[in-house]
Structure formats: C-alpha cells, structure tokens
Amino acid sequence: MWPTPIPPGPNEESVWAYPRPPALESVAARLRVVLGGRTIADTRAGLRVLETSHPPTYYFPPGDVAAGVLGPARRAGICEWKGRAVLHDVAAGDRRAEGAAWAYPDPTPDFSDLAGYVAFYAGPMEACFVGDARVTPQPGGFYGGWITPGLVGPFKGGPGSMGW
Fold this sequence. Notes:
Elements: E1 13-14, E2 23-26, E3 31-35, E4 38-43, E5 47-50, E6 57-60, E7 74-79, E8 83-92, E9 95-103, E10 118-120, E11 127-130, E12 133-134, E13 136-137, E14 146-147, E15 151-152
Parallel strand pairs: 1-15
Antiparallel strand pairs: 2-5, 3-4, 3-11, 5-6, 6-10, 7-8, 8-9, 9-10, 11-12, 13-14
C-alpha cells in the first residue's frame, strides 16, 4: 500500500514528485563529506539522482574525492536503472566505514554521466552537507539518500516501506 504523500509547502520539494524511472541532474549547491575529522569529498560539480519516494542521492566527481580515502572496489548489487554498482570502504583519520561509498563504473546509457562518480552513505560519515545544510541519512540501511531541510516524504527505507 502506498503512503499518503506530505503536501509540500512553499520552498519545499516532495520526493513523491520525483520520477520513476529516476532522473539525473546537476547540483548547483556545494556538497561535502566529513570523516575522521577531515573533509574527504568537496564539490560544486555534483550530480543527484531523483526517484519517487527516495531522498536524492548525491554523487561526487572522482577528482573531488580526497586521494586514498576509498578502498578497492568490490562488486555490489545491480540497480535496474543505473547498472552494476561497486562498494568502497572509506577511511580517514582514525575512522573506517565499511562499504560506505559506492559507484557505477560502467552505468547504463541513461546514467552514463555517473561513470566514475562516487556516492556516500551519510550515516557512517561524521557529517554530510548540501550547501550549509547538514543532511540526515535516509531511513534503513539499504538506500543512500540524503534528507535536507525543505524535503518532504514520507521516505522509502523505514519499516513497512519495502513494498512501495
């Protein structure tokens, strides 16, 4: 059963207005990820994927991810829209987060712009930001969306949302 979407107010965005299949778009805001007391990813050239019921997933160009923070790629799952993903462990300072970043080295044609870009799960990081807004991780442990102020749901990922 589908949930009842929260109506967006002024200057708010509803995840229920996002398309399916998902869309890929450029992000004008600065994106940052902090782990181990340092900024490990920082860009003004990010991309985001928008999909019905999901908070946006943000992707960083490889040149804007600090050298040496990503472990070797290992095979992960397949997204019906984007293709086969790889996971990376992330390490900085005295912190290590297993499988906390992912990428699509050879994405499907509709998502070819994602090739080489890296996304981070917000939960294992010390902090993630879109502009000056600190993000909240998408509920559950599977999806990697970033919830920011002005984004309304409900969001897929929490208990009872598997069938959405």
